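Q: Sequence in, structure out?
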Amino acid sequence: MSLLLTPPKCEQLTYLSKQIKGYEEQAVHTTGADLYTLMQRAAEAVFCCWKTFNAKQTLVITGNGNNAGDGYEVARLIKQADRHVVVCAINPNKALSGDAAKAQKQWIDSGGEICNFNADALDECDVIIDALLGTGLENTVRDNVATIIKAVNESTKPILSIDVPSGINADTGCPQGTAIMATKTMTLVGIKQGLTTTKGKQHAGQLYFDELGIGEQFMKLATPSAQIINIDCFKPLPERSVSSHKGSHGKLLCIGGNHGSAGAIRLSAESGLRSGAGMVKVYTHEHAVLPVSIGRPELMVTSEHLDDALAWSTCVVIGPGLGQDEWAQKTFDQAICYCQQNNIPTVIDADALNLLAKQSSSHKLNNTVLTPHPAEAARLLNLTTFEVESDRFYYARQCAINFAATSILKGAGTLIDNTEHTWICENGNPGLAVGGSGDVLSGIIGALMAQGLNTSEAACYGVVLHAKAGDRACEQSGQRGMLASDLFAHVRALINHK
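A: Exactly. Output:
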């Protein structure tokens, strides 16, 4: 069985900032327009987004580059709509250049004024449009701009950022010292990859995109850095044959659950059942057999004859609740050795990742999915968590390359990388940041692999199923108090297209 992603559209692809800078002019020229026309289209897109705030008084804060030009054009449109708008600039007397200067002149010719930034303007407005810094920022935000950003964020007023929230690195999503915390961001021409994961995703707020009428031409020129995926990106799983039986849908072996940690492997195993695996067996510590078994008679549970359990399986999940003691190490070594020698699809999670990190030089993994959170990825790569989070796209790829595996870097905007392609999960919410959530994810992926999906397909679809289930659970009962087991019913419904 194969589950293929549908062909991506422009709103599902992300790009590095250099790709957009390098090709937007060429793309717009092929349509017979110019960059100033593109700036006007950008202003119209931002203006449409601005209208959703229903603001009577708007403050536009501008810098010195093309992002400022967008700001002046938006201000002119707001003024034409007979709404009150004030434009404050970092340096009102600084001469701009190119299209930004043209936009500034159009604003002034329309009767608009430009003033210095002051705190009173923040008090008087209903919404702030951020046109301070664009995508070219690479260094730390200068003190004078940082002061403005701090005041804007502290105002608690709604903020609409143009292209990227000022201060955010468009490629990594990290603040360059400090950054605007936007309510909404209208990103233009191509989606900047940094706005889709971790801090960039948080600072962008609700992300909107407009390709400004050049998307088709731009896609022909630029190479995307990643694809954004959600549940609608996947073709449905095929209907099961009426003559199928339990052995037709995969035999998933879940290994883990040391003394006192039975819950983790139980969550993985049950999520495997709920995700469609025909049979699920748990190999666990002898003291965990009873806790894993109670209340779920569909699970087969053993603490003996690991070699027989491995020979029985068509996919293995190892790690949830495994621990790192002598029993865990012995179990890990035996399981990984068998899976690699026999090319058994494998999901490595939790404590198994920590054991792998201790001997990473000795493992190049075939047919394997790794599921680290940032701290686990840091141990796998011998880095700090801060370093991993400073460039998630780069280090998700490094995890995949170093272990010749498909790597999932969990977090807001989870990344999936198979050494050649990167995918970004659009769904998910903070309610998923709860104990056991990752164990459920590993069981979902294992079940999909047991049913015949390859590592990349299972990783992508599994991450999306898990995240969307979390969103449905959140809609039903809220984020706080969500349990990992709350996802089971939603996963089952989603995988059956309900």
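The domain at 233-495 is CATH 3.40.1190.20 (UDP-N-acetylmuramoyl-L-alanine:D-glutamate ligase).
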